[in-house]
Design a protein that fits this description.
The structure holds 2 protein chains of 2 kinds.
Chain A (H helix, E strand, L loop, with lengths): L16 H4 L11 H8 L12 E2 L9 H10 L14 H5 L8 H13 L12 E5 H13 L5 E5 L5 H5 L7 E5 L11 H13 L4 E7 L11 H14 L2 E5 L15 H5 L10 E6 L11 E6 L2 H10 L7 H12 L1 H28 L3 E2 L7 E5 L9 H15 L1 E2 L1 E2 L10 E5 L5 H22 L6 H8 L1 H4 L26 H4 L3
Parallel strand pairs in A: 1-11, 3-4, 3-5, 5-6, 6-7
Antiparallel strand pairs in A: 2-8, 7-8, 9-10, 10-13, 12-13
Helix pairs in contact in A: 5-12, 6-11, 13-15
Chain B lengths: L5 H4 L11 H8 L12 E2 L9 H10 L1 H4 L2 E2 L2 E2 L1 H6 L7 H14 L11 E4 L1 H13 L4 E6 L6 H7 L4 E5 L11 H13 L3 E8 L11 H14 L2 E5 L15 H7 L11 E6 L12 E5 L2 H10 L7 H12 L1 H27 L4 E2 L7 E5 L9 H13 L3 E2 L1 E2 L10 E5 L5 H25 L3 H18 L11
Parallel strand pairs in B: 1-13, 5-6, 5-7, 7-8, 8-9
Antiparallel strand pairs in B: 2-3, 4-10, 9-10, 11-12, 12-15, 14-15
Helix pairs in contact in B: 6-13, 7-8, 7-12, 14-16
The chains are: A alpha/beta, B alpha/beta.
Amino acid sequence: MVSFATEKKQDLNLLSRIAAGDGHGENSSYFDGWKAYEENPFHPIDRPDGVIQMGLAENQLCGDLMRKWVLKHPEASICTSEGVNQFSDIAIFQDYHGLPKFRQAVAKFMEKTRNNKVKFDPDRIVMSGGATGAHETVAFCLANPGDGFLVPTPYYPGFDRDLRWRTGVNLVPVTCHSSDGFKITVEALEAAYENARKSNIPVKGLLVTNPSNPLGTTLDRECLKSLVNFTNDKGIHLIADEIYAATTFGQSEFISVAEVIEEIEDCNRDLIHIVYSLSKDMGLPGLRVGIVYSYNDRVVQIARKMSSFGLVSSQTQHLIAKMLSDEDFVDEFIRESKLRLAARHAEITTGLDGLGIGWLKAKAGLFLWMDLRNLLKTATFDSETELWRVIVHQVKLNVSPGGSFHCHEPGWFRVCFANMDHKTMETALERIRVFTSQLEEETKPMAATTMMAKKKKKCWQSNLRLSFSDTRRFDDGFFSPHSPVPPSPLVRAQT
Amino acid sequence: MKQLSTKVTSNGHGQDSSYFLGWEEYEKNPYDEIKNPNGMIQMGLAENQLCFDLIESWLVKNPDAASLKRNGQSIFRELALFQDYHGMPEFKKAMAEFMEEIRGNRVTFDPKKIVLAAGSTSANETLMFCLAEPGDAFLLPTPYYPGFDRDLKWRTGAEIVPIHCSSSNGFQITESALLQAYQQAEKLDLKVKGVLVTNPSNPLGTALTRRELNLLVDFITSKNIHLISDEIYSGTMFGFEQFISVMDVLKDKKLENTEVSKRVHVVYSLSKDLGLPGFRVGAIYSNDEMIVSAATKMSSFGLVSSQTQYLLSALLSDKKFTSQYLEENQKRLKSRQRRLVSGLESAGITCLRSSAGLFCWVDMRHLLDTNTFEAELDLWKKIVYNVKLNISPGSSCHCTEPGWFRVCFANMSEDTLDLALKRLKTFVESTDCGRMISRSSHERLKSLRKKTVSNWVFRVSWTDRVPDER
């Protein structure tokens, strides 16, 4: 053995701060709900008393259409006898520009999901490892460590990881209130900008998700214009995450930032960027198709070089290119998806209406923003957490508490509705009905002494058997990607 | 532009290097046997195109896997939704077993210690994010794959300090070179976090010897630092010697399940061994569960498409296929390498003796006008523009001695290779004659060339079209 001078065994931190810290955001105690689901997942036959997963914003309503198309088009695969003649060409294709037909098909799809009101240039389409990868890439391109992005609250918890973890960028919340439907106001923007300034955080941009996660609302034309003007005036970037673009239903219109910039004279387009993905609109999160679309040439160039760290598999590019080029299929899919989302949304909201449970009026997204403020003991996040634990452990629904989305006000919960079948939705509604009627029963003797009423009100709390510990670490979250939820047949079927 | 990050405004991506000019030239004028027989032949692309027929015939025989079915039923829906960053268990199991098979089943890989990534580009960057930060450095033996400048440094802020290797001992890593590099890092006020080696080496095509591997393990043990072994070419070993992995050495030194073993990490990919760079399949293997945990979360930024995981788990689980493939792949690579080596020999050019990889490390020092990198660049330009071969100059791989070039052999047909060799031979013969005639005007030309080179180097700014290549 060759002997070298040995370093004193110091307290050498052998991992980077990034790896050793919890910037990934998954140590939050909110992952209790996921744990509860994993331990006891609902199944209509095998586990009818299991936890129903309502914390997963997935679009599973049109899987049958997708499946049908794939079976009907074996040439879209480079592995079938119909497609194998392309195997070697595709297998060696690792050009970070991506397959031209892939970019063209995605550009066309983006146009269709915006009602063909705007045109997208395929040469500006840059691939990424899902929207997760896209957001991180954009952050790397637009900000340095220590800089900040303004983000309206409530926002998708994954942003804490995607935008901050490895980039060193800060997120500065733009507080939105239920009193005006959580609208993003210029006052709130200015206040956030000022807060950042006071904290010595140079603001580099504003990130909005439109349609919103978790609210399900869309930004109207006026609001979008004000955001473009605000950011342009300040010389900062505007990043629009439009991942839910095609999930609008009913009379709701989706207006993209791409449309609005056409209407603004002297708009500095170098500051405008869109993040997109096929994970929600098409229900294909497993295929990892993320897109960075920037109007800034330099950003396109550099983001493209960075895409080396998360290119879309050429096998997938080929499939998607074929699928999205089938315009009849795409039109049918978008139309049908909207109808089914609308129907599912109507089902759950009708159910909640009947139970006197409020929800934020919105017509997009794969979830709704449920108002349970009147069920809180006190208007505090502690109360919200308590209520949430009851919903998870007693009512057995994994919903997402507003605090995890950095909501300013306690009592709101995000409830997903597009990741389950009809029967499961019915079961979930039934459980909510039982829970609320139980609450009513328990609070009826309120006419008697206040003390007794208070005691009764606590009944549902004492029924709760809290079996978790805050020291547990869960490799899981509301984030996509995530760990085995639901336990897919692919996980179960082990050779 | 003040509104963009320094990552955008700097050249950390490494692609403004004048050497990408060769790629640009190739793109403008690519060789085609029929349509463009005088075009440029791409010999700068370390791709394995020799065994697609084997995979294609497997696909024909396995229609279920090929069409995303299980027991005749389409599982597209499940695949479409599968985004678990732990990856598909059957895929990781198949990867682990494939890695074991490549190492003669002498060592075992635990699927739970595998973290999937979008290619080894992503795997290397992720590992670097886990182990290093601005102010830290990794030591790398030269010459090394140019992409490391981007993958290891660009967004992580870490630094690379070279371990200088020389032709005097076949570019092997020596004790003194290791120590010198470590001291150099200290002089630069950088904290050394580890050593990264590529084994088999890119661009050398050689495998690390047991002596070197022992040296490395001893070194990182004493310095309490990490060792990353990028074994992306492990399945391309075609020589008589066996491939020795760093995992073999840990086992032989009885260091398995020790503190040291937690600091040894392997990076792998299916891009070279299976010739599937488009599928973006990379992996990190680590014995340190904190690293596995952190890297797994980071893999969110570049997961492997579920469609691809499914296909490849079926392919790699077929042991009959994998053993046949590995054997045939090695046979074809060996034959192709021999063809290149003997073709070069007949032109009076030798290579570093190698038994792995998809390229040869070619010695053209005798063709340089002077023993300088300027002369190397000069020669390289001639080969690109006049001979119309895109090969990679050693300086782009941070080689400390001018005159070495990496020449790939597995990304073209045999006929194309023969043509490339013919062109090169003609060039060498003409140069020899040329040199004898123009020796007197050499000095005059030298100063002219110097001026041209410096103008040219600063003019070039690479913008586009570079495939993510090694």
